[in-house]
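Chapter summary example.
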Amino acid sequence: ITCIRAGGDASSLGSEAVSDRDSGLLDAFCAADQLEARLAYIELCCQVDRLCFFFGALRPYRRVAGAGGDAALCWLRRSLGHLLQELERSVIQLRQARLSVMLASKRHLQDLSKRLPGVSAKDMRWMQGLRHVDELRLEKLHRALSACCAEVNTLASAAREVELKAAAKQGLKAIASDFMSADFQARCSLALPERLAADMR
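The structure predicted for these 201 residues follows.
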């Protein structure tokens, strides 16, 4: 919506000057001096594609974590950590590319605003279309995604694994204590084996 129209061929966007008819770009973004903006747009598309790829790669981990909880995340820490690193890198690069594209779009918007009301109908539609770009929401989504990655990293960390082992050990000790309590044994119809206490310890 910022600098390209539907139906264009993006294969030539990285050249010094491109044809409006071939690329689908607005005239203002076809000149050689807009090469940086076109490269930023290509980078934006690439990072969206990378983000979708890593989301897809993480789906099996989500199912395993749903079945096995935090313990499963700790067991998968090495491979999961690599995917999360790539995902976090893609999120950062996606934001940088988006900001670059929006900066070029806002500059063009300022240029068009200076020529009002003499702009073409096509340019007017483009100016109106920029209203649909909700930058505040995009920033919130970026922060939320970064926070989720950090949370998963924490849940799969070695420190979390130590906490889980300690909690499991404490739980087993509590069960053993309840089994060996006089109150529990008094309610048992059969006496507990003599070596049960030693085995549970």
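To summarize the output: The CA atoms of residues 39 and 162 lie 46 Å apart.
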